Amino acid sequence: MRSRYTAFKLGSINYLIDTLAPEKRKSDDKEKLTQVIEGTQWLGLKVVTTEKGKKRDIEGVVEFVAFYQDGSFEQLHEHSKFIKHDSKWFYLEGEFLPAIKIGRNDPCFCGSEKKYKKCHG
Question: What percent of the chain has pLDDT over 90?
């Protein structure tokens, strides 16, 4: 998950496609990813939980929150499923979750080590 977040932040479209489960790839993935990357400034990632998959075809599950700006500050809270083929991890699918509440005195999501209220709050 962290490597895919970094790829979104750096605009590494080929990496994002390469780490998407082959059965989930579509012919317009490159164009759609380009639009997302060009219109979004990624600000931080918080991995909430990780767990081993419970179904045969799912190897791992990650709950994360990615913070971004596309005009206003937003967050993408997702429960993502990953599979492993030949020792390589692939993103399979994700379920969107409601935004998390950030406390005024919590550390800021951007990694500045400031309190949220003194940084992006």
Answer: 73
